[in-house]
Design brief:
Order of helices and strands: EHEEHEEEEHEEEEEEH
Radius of gyration: 30 Å
CATH class of the largest domain: Mainly Beta
Oligomer: single chain
Largest sheet: 6 strands, mixed, barrel
Shape: elongated
Number of strands: 13
Structural class: alpha+beta
CATH superfamily of the largest domain: Ribosomal Protein L25, Chain P
Distance between the termini: 98 Å
């Protein structure tokens, strides 16, 4: 596995003021905690985003290298990101220092695979009801995703967490009865009769017969 390196600089001061000044200079204020340590850091937003765009996503294991501190080797994960709701820019990052020989809890995405028989044969609709699983495992055993085969699902059938195949060394903490995906009938809406605009003349059967009678008399 390729080593992912996250570079950081020590950051002095805490609170909104110092954090705002860091962001004004184009950096991301961050804190690293865990394993008995707590550090205030400054990160490069582009570097952090590049690391989070790898296949592991938010569960990427990164070697943290703090400027001026070359004696300590730290492995971290991003535990939380605070983003601007309008611009989408990252405002703050929480990093968790982890031990490689202790299990941790993580959220892993569920990837649906295959086309259900209820869709291909009966024109049903496949709906994903659960997008992530909560797992506990050693850091090196964290899967990039959990693959859920839905190809055998018929209309009315549901795939549950308990039906999923999990990698060795992984314990699922999400309830086994939770529904992951289901196939349902596609509801067809009946077209409502066209409304008659105000002032528009509507011909009834009686009116049509009367009109035909008047036309016949005129012809005579």
């Amino acid at each position: 596995m390729e080593e992912l390196v996250l570079n950081a600089q020590p950051r002095e001061g805490r609170g909104k003021g110092p954090a705002r000044r860091v962001r004004q200079k184009g950096g991301i204020p961050a804190v690293m905690y865990g394993e008995g340590e707590n550090l205030s850091l400054l990160l490069d937003p582009r570097e952090l985003q590049t690391l989070l765009n790898t296949e592991a996503g938010a569960n990427a294991l990164m070697t943290l290298k703090v400027e001026g501190d070359t004696d300590v080797s730290r492995v971290v994960m991003v535990r939380d990101l605070q983003s601007d709701p309008v611009r989408g820019e990252v405002l703050h990052a929480d990093l968790l220092r982890i031990s490689m020989d202790r299990e941790i809890e993580v959220e892993v995405r569920i990837n649906l695979e295959g086309i259900p028989l209820g869709v291909s044969q009966d024109d049903g609709y496949l709906g994903q009801l659960l997008s992530t699983l909560t797992l506990r495992c050693l850091p090196m055993a964290i899967p990039d995703g959990i693959h859920a085969d839905v190809s055998d699902l018929m209309i009315g059938q549901v795939l549950h967490v308990g039906d999923l195949e999990l990698p060795e060394g992984v314990t699922v903490l999400t309830e086994s009865e939770e529904a992951v995906a289901s196939v349902t009938i596609v509801a067809v809406e009946e077209e409502a009769p066209a409304e008659v605009e105000e002032g528009e003349e509507v011909k009834t059967e009686e009116g049509e017969d009367k009109a035909k009678e008047e036309d016949s008399q005129s012809a005579e």
